[in-house]
Amino acid sequence: xxxxxxxxxxxxxxxxxxxxxxxxHAISGSDDQVFExxxxxxxxxxxxxxxxxxxxxxxxxxIDTVILGMHAKxxxxxxxxxxxxxxxxxxxxxxxxxxxxxxxxxxxxxxHGKTTITAMIMHALKAQDISFDYMVGAQLEGFDTMVxxxxxxDIALFEGDEYLSSPLDKCSKFLHYHADIAVINGIAWxxxxxxxxxxxxxxxFAKFIEQVPAQGKLFYYHHDVHLKALLNTVPTKATTTxxxxxxxxxxxxxxxxxxxxxxxNMPVFGQHNMQNMEAAHKVCSELGVTSExxxxxxxxxxxxxxxxxxxxxxxxxxxxxxxxxxxxxVKATVExxxxxxxSKQIMAILELHTYSSLNKxxxxxxxxxxxxxxxxxxxxxxxxxxxxxxxxxxxQEIKNAFDHDNLxxxxxxxxxxxxLTTSLKNPPNVVLFMSSGNFDNLNITAIxxxxxx
Length: 453
Description:
Elements: E1 2-6, H1 11-22, E2 26-30, H2 38-44, E3 65-68, H3 77-84, E4 89-91, H4 92-100, E5 104-109, H5 114-127, E6 133-135, E7 147-148, E8 155-159, E9 181-184, H6 198-211, E10 217-221, H7 225-233, E11 239-243, E12 248-251, E13 254-259, E14 262-266, H8 271-286, H9 291-298, E15 309-312, E16 318-322, H10 327-340, E17 346-351, H11 360-363, E18 375-379, H12 382-387, H13 395-402, E19 407-410, H14 413-425, E20 430-434, H15 444-452
Parallel strand pairs: 1-2, 1-3, 3-4, 5-8, 5-9, 6-8, 9-10, 10-11, 16-20, 17-18, 17-20, 18-19
Antiparallel strand pairs: 6-7, 12-13, 13-14, 15-16
């Protein structure tokens, strides 16, 4: 099959291109910008476009399928040519469904935790030599790509995002997967650029719940008030099963999970990860993995990239980074570190990078999310506000929204770097970087080495 990718440089898109290339398909693609690590990974397989830009002449009758990324605009010249020639054109999630329509599809949804839950299930299935197709939103140890297909698998496991599928397809991604087994790990308003009200955001999850078939299973986090209210009002044919957290004990030297009179030492920590683990446990039991095999596998689970990932653990400074950006994610990540290090000094550095986080009306949702830190730093780039066509935000407005006694706000990355270098020379015990971006290419490792030097 000849497959052409419009916006091949995206995080998910380039992984799908690599996975199909590995299967032996002919891959071509275009993009107007390709950043690392996509650039190097595509180049290593000979899939990096010769030049950046859009070239409708690439769209020929030899192409069997076009896959359209979110980065492309509706007036993209390659897209227009593909539609003109009636070449089958799919969004990323539509294509994944077409590839797996005859398999049992497991879809992990929710406003937070879905990457980690998906990763835990993948780790447990791999430990049992169970074949499966997958799509996950982070790079995982033991997996070359974030998308994978297996010719002899009966299971397809997808991280299910509620965001829109493509510029032409305003349907939430997770609706395209048609889950046979579904998880919703909690609901907290996000993506306000496409869900301008909480009611509209809930609507996407309502459709997801309704879609699970009568013979299907839906696992949901029992203590989420919004989710429970939704389940009381939305008709569902599927069997619904609540979950909470695994039974555990927390110590600074590590977490222990207790199940059926056995104790398992876990490398991951935090209440939210104990919640994530129970969701993964429920799914794996449904897929035939015993509890003992599941928890044994979890003892070697190191987590997903940028999900409470340890950057430096040498004394006296422990440094972590996390993808957290929405209020519920920030709060859960900070609470995990506080539970792990109850008597340590914790400093959190958060970048406001997304459309939602930079919206004045949404900022108030961050109140008290950093209250378990001893010192906090917020960074934002005014150019990001301009690019998202949002009005300016002052440092004081951010301080007022977060309501933290020891908070600094920066809007210049060089000023931020200088401040961190000074702060970390007399370091707190634990430092946490949180962002879905990269702090404008801030070199965290270099700053740590400089302060230790």
